[in-house]
Amino acid sequence: MKRREFITLLGAAVAAWPLAARAQQSSRMRRIGVLNGLTAEDSQSQARNAAFLQGLGELGWQVGRNLQIEYRWVGGDTRRAATYAAELIALAPEVILAVGTLVTAPLLAATRSVPVVFVQVTDPVGSGFVASLARPGGNATGFTLFEFGISAKWIELLKEIAPRTARVAVLFDSGSPVGFGMLGAVQSVAPSLAVDISPIILRDPSEIEPALAAFARGPDDGLIVLAGPQQIIHREVIVAAAARLKLPAVYPYRYHVVRGGLACYGPDELDQHRQVAGYVDRILKGEKPADLPVQAPTKYELVINLKTAKALGLEVPPTLLARADEVIE
């Protein structure tokens, strides 16, 4: 072999080596954990997980090829959340996805070293998960779901659809750290809308309909369902009770309206779960949670169920229908 040919081949081999090394590194099996506040059987948790896996797939991660995922499902149980958080940490994953405030709190109480990416969290600064949204500063970062002020928009939306509303029950979970903050936002704007607020604490699903029945008196009544794990888990019971009692109700999520709820306004959850895959990817590639700012929702959905409105005898204003992202007929 001539000297010039040898040098050319050697140079090509040296240039190709980092690419080959990176390819070999990316193909090795990586392990992550997922701690979910819902149950594995819940249709919404399945949809969220599918969106997360889709996001990972678009970034080159495939379960069984270069990625292993350990799941734990809490089902709204606070004690189980702490137990499963410890289990996942003991498996030494490279990063843990925490779905919901319910599971993020015990996870970060148990570790300040394993990287954590959270989603479905409303107040990460107030909850002590991060130092600030721009500079998380610890082992956690992720995606916020709601600002407390959005619950004020729910009561405004309810008044727009049902202008006669003068009394509103607010269903919230006292065990949720964000429940009282959202309730406060509703109460702060209620006087300007000439609405009296009646908080109803969600403790047990069997108490939902009796509590709402004790509140409901007539056509001037309405309902706002705040965000929280129990409101998600028992969504069918809540929607059915509101329908039987003829209560116009505004919800935080699209799937409440798909199930028969009147209207919702809130972030596109599935879009966030696709996006959260990007943060998991970046941490697996060496970035630190402390350097990744907490992201706010970028897509919001206004969904109205016209069938439910008609059953309640409500005429939805055309201007509101024109603003809706989806109208269910």
Question: Care to describe what's here?
Answer:
With 329 residues, the protein is of the alpha/beta class. The protein has 2 domains: 7-146 and 269-299, 3-Layer(aba) Sandwich (Rossmann fold); 150-251, Rossmann fold, CATH 3.40.50. Helix content is 43%, strand content 19%. The protein contains 13 helices and 12 strands. It has helices spanning 3-27, 43-58, 78-90, 101-110, 150-161, 179-189, 208-215, 229-233, 235-244, 254-258, 269-284, 306-311, 318-323; strands at 30-36, 67-73, 95-99, 116-121, 140-144, 167-172, 196-201, 221-225, 249-251, 263-267, 300-305, 326-328. The longest helix is centred in the first third of the chain and has 25 residues, at 3-27.
